């Protein structure tokens, strides 16, 4: 303090600048007090400007305004200090009001004031105000300054005035690197990746040297446009330019390769990074999730916790998506706890991911609780809960939430994915009437053109209701080309309702669309087998062998004490195999005594009755169930995940077991959830 009394005005100004750079309001107030105590009032204009700048930048706008009003010799620097601080802290309306007040006093903006005003207008999406500021910059002769011109261009881009933006860009006499970066970034943000690519090529032709921002913008363009070849070429340029050690550029490469499904390249870039930040870890977790590598994403998150990587809401939401993808409820709950500890559980990203995770893990009550606790909800949040209801077959709840959306309710308007979830809920509940009404309203009431997913849901819905011929007629009237999912839904309906003639037709179309997919061949074989047409079933399987197509292996897994135990049909490799087989035999005897009869139609080979019974008795989900009963304590639900669809015999068997042993059994297959409680299942039918 004694030293500070001896400081000159210039030294006090330097201390105020230091207070700004270190965000130290305490230091700033101490210096301000020393200025008041030791210098005449009012202080020198340059010190007054320092004080206005300090209070404004450190987000004390009222103090900054008061100082400005008490400064008799305020000039453009004084006003710019206030306006720039307000913009920096997100007070855009206030910034424009102060800009207006400055003009009323007859002060003309300078090259630093105009960019701040343009940014405020752009952030508020006020194109008219932006144009007025543009006109003033022309009148003042400042528009030819490269920074002012670049700010005006950025404003036009953000306010969606593309024509004016392009004209502004063309009129900038000397475009610097920041101008080109603004063009690239805005083109990507506006959903025009090819325009960004063209601009980058033009920039290189005139001898421009990109920086890290340029590389990241171009990589984003390649990611959005899935332009793998161009992105790989840019990766080579990154090496040649010496930016291969730049953290931001490497993060952009991780994101680019992840979106282009080159997960090995993503891992290589991450592994070779000398320095990583939180974004690097988060980008790789997101890339794993995008490529359905949910287990790797979860393991990477756990590794990041060990290395004390800073947690972000995006990292947590990505990890929760991984937990949802693999039905990892225990890990999902741990991540939820970590989100609470980090105070991010109620952000829009994490909250929506929690709703989705609990819904996909079969905990619809927890999903509803996460939804109710969110202070702010958006369309993604509502879609997540509707999707959770759809997985559970709770059509009434899904429709009730749908009715809260615009224009029926006060919520956000539904989008493409909303209708996929709602139609899926109607399909799984067999609610044909509501489903068809909602489908018909998509274009007429909401202006949304139905896509392949919506048509697939309708075909599935009609098929579940036994209206197989109507489903086929619906396909024939489709205005778009039927996709694999549409024909697959029809073929599955033919299998369930013994319509082999239409099943063959659906299979033929599936073979044309994807001749190498084993699932299509297996489903046709199953259709013939279910109808007792063994010769045709065997012929299909022989044809598969002839062209080298192999059926995908079915797996079921159950988690016990944070360890995943995996089973496949007739599996005897588990260390507790003897106990599992004993438990399975005991269950089968008890269930048969209670009235259970194996569904031998689901043995898809022409075998004797006893052989068929043995065939269906050792499916992977039954082995997982037997192990769960042995390893999990009483009262704990048995949660089984299966990569393929649960078979009808296992579905029937699980209902008997849940009633006999008084245990809740929750199965998530590749189709939906099946919750078995007290001899019943949450789904109205097996599909």
UniProtKB/TrEMBL annotation:
PPR repeats lie at residues 75-109, 378-412, 415-445. Residues 595-687 form the DYW domain. PROSITE patterns: PPR (PS51375). The keyword Iron does not apply. Residues 1-19 form the signal peptide. The keyword Transmembrane does not apply. Keywords: Repeat, Signal. Coiled coil: none annotated. InterPro entries: DYW_dom (IPR032867), E_motif (IPR046848), PPR_At4g14850-like_plant (IPR046960), PPR_rpt (IPR002885), TPR-like_helical_dom_sf (IPR011990). Belongs to the PPR family. PCMP-H subfamily. NCBIfam families: PPR (TIGR00756). PANTHER family: OS07G0578800 PROTEIN-RELATED, OS11G0583200 PROTEIN. This is DYW domain-containing protein. It comes from Brassica napus (Rape).
